[in-house]
Design brief:
The complex is a heterodimer of chains A (158) and B (170).
Chain A lengths: L6 H4 L5 H4 L4 H10 L5 H10 L11 H25 L3 H26 L3 H28 L3 H10 L1
Helix pairs in contact in A: 5-6, 6-7
Chain B lengths: L1 H9 L2 E4 L5 E4 L8 H14 L15 H29 L4 H9 L5 H29 L6 H25 L1
Antiparallel strand pairs in B: 1-2
Helix pairs in contact in B: 3-5, 5-6
Classes of the chains: A mainly alpha (158), B mainly alpha (170).
Chain lengths: 158, 170
């Protein structure tokens, strides 16, 4: 829903002018305004409208952000899972979640500190290689050795 | 957060009276992405060989700043540790119990053993608890400055306590 409000009616005159506008759109705005505790859904709703974009904007970055949080929550859940239900299922899930969380995390660090197209490409390629080897190594350990859960248990038993 | 604010302003949105939470749009969208503009900025300033202004060396350090970089530091450290472990698993000939016994045969003593355990437990504990704090922020909660400091102290205290508990009871 495109919520285009004339700038002059919003600036420096407070909320009152909006009450006297006849358009339904501004009424919806006003009603939502009262909920001052969550301006977030309001802005999200307005921002969702793409009527003023010259072209479409990729949702890749937004989806990446959501993916990062999902993996974080899953990894959080794997802590108690590993403690109460150790075994291959948790071992391989842990290998995947740890590697992905670490890959995206280091990716953010590199994005913050590395500048210039060629350098960015190089370090990201290096990171991809590292993450691949990490995942391979963890899976190898799970398959041919005691597995992640058992390894932590053994490490801590001494 | 800084980047998203820039994205808003470049698309020609404006924020009036934050307490009303209204966003209105101008009719002229911009042609470049944030990424493109950042690259242009760095390319230009590097080409002109401009020195960077002092920042970390002059700005007063605050608790949230220190916690933030510690979160990053523990994350990088833990990630490096996991990668090193995975690499060793692929490269070294023996199996895990063999190497564990090898380390134990060095008989380092209980104090150093506890220290080593703390060295592993604390980064895990801190990064996990501060990570939960981050997830709260991601849901939009706890941004008021007193809340930031309060949740920060809770994370620090709980991290130390859980690390000690992990060493003492497990």
């Amino acid at each position: 829903m495109a919520a285009i409000v004339r700038i002059s009616s919003v600036c420096h005159r407070g909320v009152k002018p909006l009450f006297y506008r006849s358009s339904l759109l501004s009424r919806t705005l006003v009603a939502q305004q009262k909920d001052q505790d969550c301006p977030y859904p309001l802005t999200a709703r307005i921002h969702g409208s793409s009527s003023l974009y010259a072209g479409s904007v990729s949702k890749a970055a937004s989806l990446h952000w959501t993916g990062e949080r999902v993996v974080s929550v899953l990894l959080l859940a794997m802590g108690p899972a590993a403690y109460y239900f150790p075994g291959p299922a948790v071992d391989y899930s842990l290998a995947a979640a740890l590697t992905l969380h670490g890959h995206w995390g280091i990716g953010q660090v590199l994005t913050d500190y590395v500048h210039g197209e060629p350098k960015i490409k190089m370090v990201n390629a290096g990171l991809f290689l590292l993450s691949t080897v990490t995942f391979a190594g963890l899976c190898y350990f799970n398959y041919n050795d005691v597995g992640i859960c058992k390894a932590v248990a053994l490490l801590w038993s001494k | 957060c800084f980047i998203s604010l820039r994205t808003f302003t470049r698309q020609g949105t404006c924020l009036f009276r934050p307490q009303f939470g209204i966003l209105c749009r101008h009719a002229v969208p911009m042609g470049t992405t944030a990424n493109e503009e950042m690259n242009t900025f760095w390319a230009k300033n590097n080409k002109l060989n401009r020195p960077m202004s002092p920042h970390l060396t002059i700005y007063k350090w605050s608790m949230p700043m220190m916690m933030s970089i510690t979160h990053r530091g523990t994350g990088v450290g833990l990630s490096g540790g996991i990668s090193a472990f995975a690499l060793l698993a692929l490269v070294l000939p023996g199996n895990y119990p063999y190497y564990l016994d090898l380390i134990h045969s060095l008989s380092v003593g209980p104090a150093l053993l506890s220290l080593a355990k703390f060295g592993i437990a604390f980064p895990v504990s801190y990064h996990t608890l501060n990570g939960i704090r981050h997830l709260f922020w991601d849901s939009g909660k706890g941004f008021k400055i007193p809340e930031v400091y309060r949740s920060g102290y809770v994370v620090i205290v709980l991290s130390i306590l859980t690390s000690i508990a992990a060493i003492a009871y497990m």
